[in-house]
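thread from #wetlab-drylab

HS: before we spend reagent money on co-crystallization trials with flavin mononucleotide, can we at least see a predicted complex? here's what I'd submit
DV: go for it
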Amino acid sequence: MSEPKDKPTAPAHARTRRHSVTTEVPAESIEIVPVDENPRKNEHLRVALDARVERPGRGNGLSAYQFDPQSLPELDLDQVDTSCIVLGKRLSAPLLVGAMTGGTAQAGAVNRVLATAAELCGVGFCLGSQRAMLDLAGDHVRSFAMREVAPTTLLLGNIGAIQLRDHLSGKDLERLALAVGADGMMVHLNPLQEAIQPEGDRDWRGVYDALGDVAASCGLPVLVKEVGAGLSATSLNRLKLLGIAGVETAGVGGTSWSYIEALRHRGRTPQAIAGEVLADFGTCTADSLQLARVAFANRVVIASGGLRNGLEVAKCMALGASACAMAAPFLQAATVGVEAVVTEILGVIETLRITMFLVGAPDVHQLGQTPLVRTASCTPR
Ligand SMILES: Cc1cc2nc3c(=O)[nH]c(=O)nc-3n(C[C@H](O)[C@H](O)[C@H](O)COP(=O)(O)O)c2cc1C
């Protein structure tokens, strides 16, 4: 990986709302290579860049929904307002860069690129698991210290539910957020991933009660997310009883952690076989989102899991999302640099804006009231 050089520039329209970012970020592409400091983290990044971990087979469920286009929109495209407020922060669009990484120098470089682009575009940014801040020696805070490059935008911290159960009180979780300047914490539920992971945690007893205790005593918003298997009706109906601020679906249809862990076995092991079979196991994003909106009527519902463009973001908003998160698509661009990520984010926002125009929705609130037509078939996108 190269040394940080000049700060990148984003297109003028990306900087309409934001100040320029002065902190240095890597100007050249990032090569993800295995290193000793935390091999699993870098291996996750490397395997996640493999196209096979996308699961188009079942799809995210959104292709079954279509807008009814307006050929007479009666709107000025340039006046269409994609902005929204999530957890008290105004975003230029209902979009977050999904939780991915941290804990190694390479992961920190990826985070810096992603966070810089998020700030420039005015969208939210989610850190990957901060587990390294709990159980590894050394200065692992740096790879999560993104307020240097993203001083104003919505920033969410992240920790696994198992680490929370085993190590954290509500006040500890708050400290973990404050150490990185996060506006709130995401707690991820990943029992499928852990079951397939060679070194995974297999004992999930006591997680629900721990979540309830921690959420009740943490002074910052706590959200609960899946990592690609989707939150089901049963899980959502239990989670809604806890004092959490909201959920992120991370439904089936995108990155499959079951499959990523299966690939990490490098050969045919019983766990690898299970990982392949269960690669699509869970609740697809379109279903998980609608179930989440019912269960969490007035709380934050972030749609994610296989969202790949602004049309899918628009559909999720019409199906009740407060905002959407995309992870893997931005990782690919992050290996190229900040400008590549900015281009991808702006592409999503522009597609969202044009879709809103074409369905006659002048703002995100109206988009949320726009009906979608359910088509007969649910085919992959
Ligand atoms: C490389 C990579 C690392 C990830 N690490 C985390 C993590 O540390 N914590 C977490 O909650 N989710 C993590 N995720 C899951 C994503 O946040 C997201 O829920 C999932 O990938 C589905 O979104 P996608 O299909 O847009 O990738 C990771 C995803 C990727 C691709």
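DV: Confidence is low (pLDDT under 50) at residues 1-23, 377-381.
HS: ok that's useful, forwarding to the group
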